[in-house]
């Protein structure tokens, strides 16, 4: 993958974080008029509706991407179920606690995504990325236990953490199908997750709010969920679940700043201390993502004796080399596997570098 493609993926991940960041402070305002589960429902329905309209204008462009198939069903179902549970938990947490605290605790999603990606989905996590995750985690700890006026580890915080864990697993499920049609994925997320949350809300007996509040929630859902999810999935194609989630770490800080403006919540010294740790972590993630490793393919011409006959094979494989250039020829012995009869032969071959 070239650097320009990686750069675009990073920009998409950051935009996804910024769009999502507006969710918490504005949801806090709307939760005064809309019950939590219905709020979660309207956010996802708004995402599905808005992205569905976008699809009408980009149908031909999207045709090059493969549609979801039967093999993708487990990840698709997991994605939808988790997207029902996560926003409901988040809305309950926001409703009980403060918008800024809920935003800051969103950082735990990065940790959850990384651990799940490593343990369940076997995604590679580099040492630099672990260091970055460490800084991000320190930032989360600093911000989460600020003092008397900060986040108190309450029932609200447990719901927010539950939401981040659900989204951590959901991020990995979505990563498994991120090469497929982005529009199809977001539409499924929006309509099925939104409908599922709506059914739960009716079962709980939540009252339908006035239409003007519903429209406001749908619009917020399109921007904070629809556009955010769309860009997040596109970024995942090139960065993977772990790195995309790490870039997403800027969302809690943007959300906290917006909570200061929209909800009148205070920014403290600890907020800026945490910001320093977050910037360090983000810079390390950016470096780890943008560094291009040098590798190339070349051919070995191999001559060996097999069953009384002489064969010549051209075997192409990939090596990573340093940038030292060797001009000389050299001979050495090594073993290759003969894929015709699965026997190993000791070969002498000549290689040019």
Characterization of the model:
This protein is of the alpha+beta class and 353 residues long. Helices cover 65% and strands 11% of the residues. A 4-stranded antiparallel β-sheet has the order 2-1-4-3, with no helix packed on it. The two termini are 24 Å apart. Belongs to the EamA transporter family.
Tags for this model:
cell membrane; 4 strands; transmembrane helix; 2 domains; EmrE-like; transmembrane; 65% helix; disordered C terminus; 353 residues; EamA_dom
Beginning-to-end CA distance, first to last residue: 24 Å
Number of strands: 4
The domain count comes to: 2
The backbone outline, from C-alpha atoms, is globular
Specify the number of helices: 13
Keywords: Cell membrane, Membrane, Transmembrane, Transmembrane helix
Subcellular location: Cell membrane
Organism: Streptococcus sanguinis
Family: Belongs to the EamA transporter family.
Write the layout of secondary structure elements.
Layout: H1 3-21, H2 23-30, H3 36-57, H4 59-62, H5 73-96, H6 99-105, H7 108-119, H8 127-144, H9 155-176, H10 182-204, H11 211-247, H12 250-262, H13 269-290, E1 296-306, E2 309-319, E3 330-337, E4 344-351
Helix pairs in contact: 1-11, 1-12, 2-6, 2-11, 2-12, 3-5, 3-10, 3-11, 5-9, 5-10, 6-12, 7-8, 7-9, 7-11, 8-13, 9-11, 10-11, 11-13
InterPro entries: Diverse_Substrate_Transporter (IPR051258), EamA_dom (IPR000620), EmrE-like (IPR037185)
Membrane topology: Multi-pass membrane protein
Subcellular location: Cell membrane
């Amino acid at each position: 993958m070239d650097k320009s493609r990686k750069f675009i993926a990073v920009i998409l991940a950051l935009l996804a974080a910024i769009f999502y960041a507006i969710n918490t402070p504005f949801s806090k305002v709307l939760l005064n008029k809309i019950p939590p589960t219905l709020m979660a429902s309207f956010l996802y329905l708004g995402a599905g509706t808005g992205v569905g309209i976008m699809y009408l204008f980009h149908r031909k462009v999207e045709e090059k991407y493969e549609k979801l198939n039967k093999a993708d069903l487990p990840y698709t179902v997991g994605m939808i179920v988790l997207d029902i549970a996560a926003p409901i938990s988040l809305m309950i947490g926001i409703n009980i606690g403060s918008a800024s605290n809920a935003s800051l605790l969103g950082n735990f999603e990065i940790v959850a995504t990384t651990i799940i990606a490593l343990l369940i989905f076997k995604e590679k996590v580099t040492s630099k990325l672990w260091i970055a995750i460490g800084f991000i985690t320190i930032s989360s700890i600093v911000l989460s236990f600020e003092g008397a006026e900060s986040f108190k580890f309450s029932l609200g915080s447990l719901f927010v953490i539950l939401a981040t864990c659900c989204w951590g697993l959901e991020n990995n499920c979505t990563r498994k199908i991120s090469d497929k049609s982005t529009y199809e994925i977001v539409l499924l997320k929006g309509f099925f997750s939104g409908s599922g949350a709506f059914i739960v809300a009716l079962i709980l007996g939540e009252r339908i709010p006035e239409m003007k509040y519903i429209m406001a929630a749908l619009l917020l859902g399109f921007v904070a969920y629809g556009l955010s999810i769309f860009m997040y999935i596109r970024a995942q194609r090139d960065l993977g679940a772990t790195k995309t989630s790490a870039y997403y770490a800027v969302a809690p800080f943007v959300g906290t700043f917006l909570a200061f403006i929209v909800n009148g919540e205070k920014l403290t010294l600890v907020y800026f201390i945490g910001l320093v740790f977050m910037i360090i972590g983000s810079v390390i993630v950016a470096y780890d993502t943008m560094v291009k490793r040098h590798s190339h393919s070349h051919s070995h011409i191999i001559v060996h004796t097999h069953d009384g006959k002489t064969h010549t094979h051209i075997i192409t494989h990939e090596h990573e080399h340093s940038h030292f250039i060797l001009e000389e020829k050299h001979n050495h012995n090594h073993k290759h596997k003969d894929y015709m009869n699965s026997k190993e032969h000791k070969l002498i071959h000549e290689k040019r570098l």
